[in-house]
Specification:
The complex is a heterodimer of chains A (476) and B (461). Chain A has 476 residues and is an alpha+beta fold. Chain A contains 11 helices and 24 strands. Chain A has helices spanning 14-23, 82-92, 122-125, 129-146, 209-212, 216-231, 253-260, 265-269, 330-336, 369-374, 425-428; strands spanning 31-47, 50-68, 71-77, 109-111, 150-168, 172-191, 194-204, 239-246, 290-293, 314-319, 322-323, 344-345, 354-355, 359-362, 378-390, 396-408, 411-416, 420-424, 432-435, 440-441, 447-450, 453-456, 458-461, 464-472. The longest helix of chain A has 18 residues, at 129-146. The radius of gyration of chain A is 24 Å and the shape is globular. The termini of chain A are far apart. Chain B has 2 domains: 10-229, PmbA/TldD fold; 238-461, no CATH class. Chain B has helices at 10-30, 86-102, 134-151, 221-233, 252-265, 268-272, 333-339, 371-376, 426-431; strands spanning 35-51, 54-72, 75-81, 155-174, 179-196, 203-205, 208-212, 244-250, 293-296, 317-322, 325-326, 347-348, 356-357, 362-364, 380-388, 398-409, 412-425, 433-436, 446-447, 451-459. In chain B, strands 1, 2, 3, 4, 5, 6 and 7 form a 7-stranded antiparallel beta sheet that branches. In chain B, strands 8-15-16-17-20 form a 5-stranded mixed β-barrel. Chain B has a 5-stranded mixed beta sheet with strand order 11-10-9-14-19, covered by helices on one side. In chain B, a hairpin with a 4-residue loop joins strand 4 and strand 5 (179-196). In chain B, helix 3 runs parallel beside helix 4. Classes of the chains: A alpha+beta (476), B alpha+beta (461). At the A-B interface, strand 2, strand 3, helix 4, strand 5 and strand 6 of A face strand 2, strand 3, helix 2, strand 4 and strand 6 of B. Strand 3 (71-77) of chain A pairs parallel with strand 2 (54-72) of chain B, so a sheet runs across the interface.
């Protein structure tokens, strides 16, 4: 079981934390917290067959927040003395502009997180640089062995070890240790003047041994090489509205962009989302059930607790096509009078908490993926994607294929060049006619951006058929 | 409004950091480093977001960070920390040297030659001493948002207005004895209103913003709010169009995004890794002969200006494209050596990372036509005002992005459009630039006038 994180780790006493919270205890402040964070991140990267770069970064600080109604006052400091905590607290409470509160803040009581989703010993999280170098060298050799047309391999291995503690005005003190790692590979293939790129990667809240199990690192290398070689024979993508079959796993980025962001509570409280006031309404076909689940062991998007100390949970967003729930942090749950889902996240102590996704995926259905392909006369089969983006207010979203094929008369035929798919969030899932029995979660590479803050997330999808979506290729 | 001097005496702190840097460099040398450089940066930030007339979020902070890069002959590593205590720095220096010993020798790695270090460090008008009090900044955000609401009854909601001010200092020193420093500041206001169509309830959001090094140069809060409202309202009633090949006019910001793609393609790192669609094109025609592009690191008050780059080389004005011919890549020392070329003074450095390459003030020289005249020249086509997504393949130049804007019919903006894509290949798109507008305005480090591309595939219905 996880040992509780002590404030002493940050050179702060519980009394000092309580003292700072007490300064935030003015009449109109309904909630305040202190978020202590210490983070060590390391990376090694290779290109041109040599591991050239190694980097390490260490940071520590505290974010101090007070909320009064809809207002948030926030300050942060990379110094953790009593005086710095006081200055930050005085800044944060500026928004309340009211006299000292009558009742004293409770002394924070230490709680343990209720889960232990990524039990990695510190010793195992620390990887000797020589081992990282050896991992990347093996990847380079494997990718080049896959095909002599692979002319360059760029690979990086990043790890992060984060210790956090949250002390709140409602009297709790809870901490977590959050390891995270990721291996990313990009290959360049050349055949005469034709040059193409392929990428693959994976990771999670896992230790170094994960990458070596069953030579997982080598299979990543072959996947990146395969995609680059495949793209050498890709033809121009079609343009216009057509049926699209999405493979399982990472194409779940569709859910993240099309509906996930639109269901974050802040946009709905402010009524700036295309999904505002659609709770209880149909937003997807009845074969679609979609959840956001922060409780999956070792997953990149998982957390024992969110960054406000709330245990994460599995929230059903859409049940058989009906919109059920938004994802919330404390501020928005309180203001909207809806359940707290444990989705209050922040990039680091320098950023404010926002409602954010964890692992977002569609539950398996009953269709056979082969039947979906067979049912399409002319369309696209998309297997892998780069990034995506959404306009929350209009609901329009895009995501860009990096590996896709034409479907002609029920058969997968030629690979096509990458193309952007564009649709409307509240409509697209009503056009999902078949959901496969083959739910797959992604490999652990997702990073979500919102208001300039990046947080790790996961996605997942069974194979699905979308009857029509606009494909942004160049050919009629 | 309260104006005055910032609290601490800046020169003292700069000297303190220079001394700190000298100490760290000396300790690194004692640990076995053959060369090293160090960046120390600090700053203060203030940000206030107002939404529907009340303060939504107020953020204030001071921060500092130190980044160290060491070379042990041809091996190198980079580290950073926010903890400047003696113990922490000793640990950092030891860690950096250990990391450097663990990586592989890289023949071209190393600092720039000592003779190349910037000899002069001109003041480029990057710093404003103005200190704004909290109420003034809240007032700016409130007035910006209020102006958007007042501009049109269809503005019914808001994602808010944000006023930011920040100032900071950078000190860069290396084992050649170079020590450089400069201060800079930024003031910005952005307003993001939401317009609602009364009949359907459909919403559209847009935004307008301005950033300046000097507070006094900021346009009025009212004008920024009004422009934001105009942009949101004009999107109401947007529809899809049929899939077809048409001429496409890019507004200033969207044309700027094409220039940003050009920046990426001529960055030394993409080139030596063979991950760019513009390999081996120096001296070749890569664009329409209407196109001339400069990168000027010493433009007074420029948002991308700095007296020296991330390695301490003097910034300068480089001709990037001259009447369609590629004249220069963007290079730092490392990527330049890989390509057998000198650095162009474009090393960009975030504390804690080894240098990469970035533009300074990168801009397309304006032509003679107004945006109105350019739109007027199109019989049927698309005027793009927003692009979303990441559908750009830098290796091949293949381009496919989500777009919204206006359909042009007989030289007029006929109606707003959305949920469409534009697709082509950047190599061809730069050559197909048919007209360049006269409306160059610097709103960021990359700037472009309106431009017209003769034809792209628009995918819709």
């Amino acid at each position: 079981m996880l040992e509780p994180v002590q404030l002493a780790k940050f050179g702060v006493t519980e009394l000092e934390a309580q003292h700072a919270l007490d300064r935030l205890n003015v009449r109109d402040v309904d909630y305040a917290d202190l978020y202590f964070e210490s983070r060590t991140s390391e990376s090694v990267s290779m290109e041109e067959g040599i591991v050239k770069r190694a980097a390490k970064s260490v940071s520590q600080g505290v974010g101090v927040r007070a909320t009064a109604g809809e207002k948030t006052g926030f300050a942060y400091s990379d110094e953790l003395t009593k005086k710095d905590l006081e200055i930050a607290a005085d800044t944060a409470r500026y928004i309340a502009n009211s006299p000292q509160g009558a009742s004293p803040v409770p002394v924070p009581t230490q709680r343990r997180p209720t889960r232990d989703l990524y039990p990695i010993e510190r010793a195992k999280a620390e990887v000797a640089t020589a081992d990282r170098v050896a991992l990347l060298n093996a990847i380079d050799a494997e990718a080049r062995r896959y095909d002599p047309r692979i002319k360059n391999v760029m690979a990086s291995f990043n790890t992060e070890y984060k210790v956090v503690a949250v002390a709140t005005s409602d009297g709790t003190l809870v901490g977590d240790i959050q390891p995270l790692s990721r291996l990313q590979i990009t290959c360049i293939a050349e055949d005469g003047d034709n040059r193409q790129v392929g990428s693959f990667g994976g990771g999670g809240r896992v230790g170094f041994e994960y990458y070596l199990e069953d030579n997982r690192h080598l299979s990543y290398a072959r996947e990146a090489a395969r995609e680059a070689i495949l793209n050498l024979s890709a033809v121009d993508a079609p343009a216009g509205v057509m049926p699209v079959v999405l493979a399982g796993g990472w194409p779940g980025i569709l859910l993240h962009e099309a509906i996930g962001h639109g269901l974050e509570a802040d946009f709905n409280r402010k009524k700036t989302s295309a999904f505002s006031s659609l709770i209880g309404k149909r937003v997807a076909s009845d074969v679609c059930t979609i959840v956001d689940d922060g409780t999956l062991p070792f997953r990149r998007g998982s957390l024992n607790m969110d960054d406000e100390g709330t245990p994460t949970s599995c929230t059903t967003l859409i049940e058989k096509g009906i919109l059920r729930r938004y994802i919330t942090d404390k501020l928005n749950a309180r203001l909207m009078g809806i359940p707290l889902t444990g989705n209050g996240r922040r990039e680091n102590y320098q950023s404010v908490v926002l409602p954010r996704m964890t692992n977002t995926f569609m539950l398996a259905g009953e269709s056979d993926p082969q039947d979906m392909i067979r049912s399409v006369k002319r369309g696209l089969y998309a297997v892998s994607f780069g990034g995506g983006q959404v306009d929350i207010t209009s609901g329009k979203f895009v995501f860009s294929a990096s590996e896709a094929y034409l479907i002609e008369d029920g058969q997968i035929t030629k690979p096509v060049k990458g193309a952007t798919l564009i649709g409307s969030g509240p409509e697209i899932l009503t056009k999902v006619s078949m959901v496969g029995h083959d739910l797959k979660l992604d490999n652990g590479i997702g990073t979500c951006g919102k208001d300039g803050q990046s947080v790790p997330v996961g996605v997942g999808l069974p194979t699905i058929k979308i009857d029509e979506i606009t494909v942004g290729g160049t050919q009629r | 409004m309260h104006q005055g001097q910032r609290g601490t005496e800046p020169a003292t702190i700069t000297n303190g950091y220079a001394q700190l840097a000298a100490n760290v460099l000396a300790r690194a040398k004692a640990c076995g480093a053959t060369e090293a450089d160090i960046v120390v940066a600090d700053g203060e930030t203030f940000s206030v977001q107002v939404r529907v007339g009340t303060v939504d979020r107020l953020t204030k902070a001071r921060e500092k960070r130190l980044g160290l890069r060491v070379f042990i002959r041809k091996r190198s590593a980079t580290t950073s920390t926010s903890d400047f205590s003696q113990d922490s720095l000793e640990r950092l220096i030891a860690d950096t040297c250990t990391l450097a010993r663990a990586v592989v020798e890289d023949d071209v790695s190393g600092l720039p030659d000592a003779a190349q270090m910037a000899a002069d460090q001109p003041s480029l008008d990057l710093y404003d001493e103005t200190v704004l009090d909290t109420e003034t900044q809240i007032d700016w955000a409130k007035r910006g948002e209020a102006a958007a609401f007042a501009a049109d009854p269809r503005i019914t909601n808001s994602e808010g207005a944000e006023f930011d001010s920040s100032s900071g200092r950078v000190v860069l020193a290396n084992s050649h004895g170079f020590v450089g420093s400069y201060k800079s500041s930024n003031f910005s206001l952005s307003v993001s209103p939401i317009a609602t169509e009364s009949t359907t309830g459909a919403m559209q959001r847009d935004a307008w913003y301005e950033v300046q090094r000097k507070f006094a140069r900021l346009a009025s809060a009212e004008s920024i709010g009004q422009e934001a409202a105009r942009r949101a309202v004009r999107r109401l009633g947007a529809r899809k169009v049929a899939t077809k090949r048409v001429p496409v006019v890019f507004d200033q910001d969207m044309a700027g995004s094409l220039l940003a793609n050009l920046c990426g393609a001529i960055s030394g790192y993409g080139l030596y890794k063979r991950a760019s669609f513009l390999l081996d094109q120096l001296g070749q025609t890569i664009a329409s002969d209407l196109m001339t592009v400069y990168d000027d690191g010493r433009m007074a008050g420029g948002l991308g200006s700095r007296p020296f780059d991330g390695e301490g080389l003097a910034t300068r004005k480089n001709t990037i494209v001259e009447r369609g011919v590629l004249r220069s890549y963007l290079l730092d020392t490392y990527s330049g050596r890989k390509l057998g070329l000198p650095s162009t003074g474009n090393a960009s450095r975030s504390v804690g990372e080894s240098p990469s390459v970035g533009p300074t003030n990168f801009y397309l020289v304006p032509g003679l036509k107004s945006a109105q005249e350019i739109i007027g020249s199109v019989k049927e086509g698309l005027y793009v005002t927003e692009l979303i997504g990441f559908g750009i393949n830098m290796v091949t130049g293949d381009y496919s992005r989500g777009a919204s804007g206006f359909w042009i019919e007989n030289g007029e903006l006929a109606y707003p459009v959305e949920e469409i894509t534009i697709a082509g290949n950047l190599k061809q798109m730069f050559k197909d630039i048919e007209v360049i507008g006269s409306d160059l305005v610097f709103r960021g480090r990359i700037a472009s006038p309106t431009l017209k591309i003769s034809e792209l595939m628009v995918a819709g219905n």
